[in-house]
Design goal:
By secondary structure, the chain is mostly beta strands. It is 6% helix and 22% strand. It has a six-stranded mixed beta sheet. The protein has a two-stranded parallel ribbon with strand order 3-5.
Length: 143
């Protein structure tokens, strides 16, 4: 990724002060390690948080507005009603794919989340009723 110009944020953040945004990247929850104190965000900016697993949404503490981008679930990859939730990988919780509000995340902070099904696969070398996706999100300042 570095050779393509990406900067990996592994338990790091970058402020885009001109835009009023702070980008925060956490290490992989299952395979890496993040000091729990880093989940307490002390920023007054709009925080865009990137975390591989959606379960990270359960640890965020913040007084400002936050948007979490996650993946890991592959959208269930093999989507069969009543069975898929039992097959989701650890770290997914109940977040299969899509947009989640504070109420759906079950948090009291200002946090919205999108969990992408991504383009890859995991345990199984195929997808069933779970098409791959590349998402585009447009942030617009509210009134």
């Amino acid at each position: 990724m570095t050779s393509c110009g990406f900067e990996l944020l592994k338990n790091e953040s970058v402020e885009l002060a001109d835009y009023g945004i702070k980008l925060i990247g956490y290490d992989d929850y299952l395979m890496g390690w993040t000091d729990p104190s880093l989940y307490k965000i002390e920023s007054d900016l709009f925080n865009i948080i990137i975390a591989h697993e959606p379960i990270v949404s359960q640890f965020i503490e913040s007084k400002s507005e936050n948007f979490l981008l996650s993946g890991h679930t592959h959208g269930g990859q093999v989507s069969i009603p009543f069975i898929t939730p039992k097959l989701l990988p650890a770290g997914s919780e109940r977040f299969k794919k899509g947009y989640y509000t504070e109420k759906e995340i079950n948090t009291t902070i200002s946090l919205k989340m999108y969990t992408s099904s991504g383009i890859g696969m995991t345990r199984y070398p195929f997808r069933f009723l779970s098409p791959p996706e590349i998402i585009q999100i447009k942030f617009q300042q509210g009134n």
